[in-house]
Amino acid sequence: MPDFQLGPEDCLFYEYIAPTRENGFTMIFFNALTGDTNNWETVIGPRLREAGHGTLAYNLRGQTNSKFSPGLKLDVDLIVNDAIGLLEEIKPPRPIMVGLSIGGLFAARAWLKGAEAHGLVLINTLRRDGPRLKWIGDALVRAAEVGGLDLFRDLFLPLLMNEEWLATNRSNFLKPEPEYASLSPESGHYKLLAEAGREADWNLPYERLDLPVLVITGLQDHVFLEPDVVDDLFSKLPRGQRVDMPDAGHLIPAERPDALANSLLSFIKEIS
Q1: Considering the domain boundaries, does residue 120 fall inside one?
Q2: Residue 257 is part of which domain span?
Q3: How far apart are CA 268 and CA 30, in angstroms?
Q4: At 108, which CATH number?
Q5: What share of the chain is helix, strand, coil (3-state, %, to 5)?
Q6: Number of domains into which the chain is organized
Q7: Helix count and strand count (H, E) for the chain
Q8: How many CB atoms sit inside 10 A of residue 95's CB?
Q9: What residues does 243 pair with on adjacent strands?
Q10: pLDDT along the chain (272 residues), means of 10
């Protein structure tokens, strides 16, 4: 797959397939900080393409195959500007932005800065700055410092994922003799957690998101979900729609990909 070159040492890895139907949309997928294009391509991308729509999935600088210059700060502004540049380069027809977790924040800020979109999908994105969120951001970075992404997953997946997924996947984690290793402060995932995640400004002007917005919430998310906050922020959206998933947690593309694909296809029909 091609790379979008951002400089001599910097690029974005992406996978783009154009719509095959007349007036088809293109779903633009924005990863979470530890995400990857594979999160979208296992089930969701093929389902959308079967319906004739296009897909564009890419990895942030610092994620798999997306390179960055030594010392570069991988903060929210850089990520948003990268997304805008990629969309200007590819010019996907009739884009709909789909963001998971903080990926929804990146997508919303890209649209507010002028990126074209016919709709916006925020998956477990709605949250408000405060002591609790700051503590979580610090704890995520601390886990990566002590034991890398393996410790990160062992600690947080039981709180992020639904019960069924945990029962099925437990044997893939919590190894009897784990070999935890700290992440280098110069590694991509560490820098994303520390410079984008921990320092993010979550105070989005939701009232200015005047386009169709679908808010999808996994009710088994025991880390980021604050129901009263979601209700309040959703009420500010001028053209909001909402889907709550009682059997999903935070990482819905991995937990309930078919249900997510169904919600995306329904949203497309609503705005067509």
Answers
A1: yes
A2: 3-127+204-271
A3: 17
A4: 3.40.50.1820
A5: 45, 15, 40
A6: 1
A7: 10, 8
A8: 22
A9: 216
A10: 91 98 97 96 97 98 97 98 98 98 98 98 97 95 94 94 94 86 96 97 97 98 97 98 98 98 98 93
